[in-house]
Amino acid sequence: MKRRILIPGVSGLLGLNFAHTCDETDEIIGTVNSHPLKKAPFQTMNHDFSTLHDLEDLFEEVKPDMVVNCVAIANLDASEKQPELARILNAELPGKFAEITKKLSIPFVHISTDAVFDGQKGNYAEKDATNPINVYAATKLAGEEAVSASNPDAIIARVNFYGWSLSGKRSLCEFFFNNLKAEIPLKGFNDLFYNPMMVTDLAETLLEMVEKNLAGIYHVSTDEALSKYDFGCRLSEVFGFDVGLIEPASWCDIDLAAVRSTNLTMDVSKLIGDLGHGVPGVLDGLIRLKAQQDNGYAAYLQSLAE
Prior knowledge:
13 strands, alpha/beta, seven-stranded parallel β-sheet, 40% helix, Rossmann fold, two-stranded parallel sheet
């Protein structure tokens, strides 16, 4: 059955890849703002969500059957420097989307983050206490709470993902790829741990969650934990780059605006149990990433940038 899927923030890393992952029978309508698209194979419309205006009009115009919210100030340091905008986009807007989708009785997927935890323990389950330690994390947690209060049927996905982006510079995998390909020495944090999921794997998992009518908070990631340094080394091996170019380093040695949580690894057993099968591993995702680069997908996404 053909669905009209509204993706606010479609030019972002997840939004753009989610749109290209959907079945060809689905009709995608994506909103863009600061990063417009050209010749996209789906409909786009301009919308500035920073004012929270005209949301009801947007839904009335699009008449979606499903909404996947990819709007966010997702950069930790940018959120620290623009706390009011982060509050509006990360916290208030999701609650508005939740209210409208609940009223319309349509599936709503809200994208949250592993950063709602303080990183002191690791292997976090959904029931574990949250404790955000920066503006980004605090506003994203407020967004979760707003969605839960307004639409208990919504999926709230805590994620950490990578993949090819519109700019070619948005994702950690692109940081490693671009530098390693140019044979430029770089640093990788060996004291920040997480569960990175390849963005196409994430999109497919979210679609399956909708099909299974799941609801509530889920940790949606690979079940394999590693440091960001280790991730860079894995990527280097898969792409055939010189792993010796990556120097292990501490995030504390870098001048960053926002404090980082050191261990954001997540327990995905709830997701695996409710899906009825495992999730793709880190190596699976990196092999898929390379295949996309080899077949021109990464270059194609960059060609969509105006």
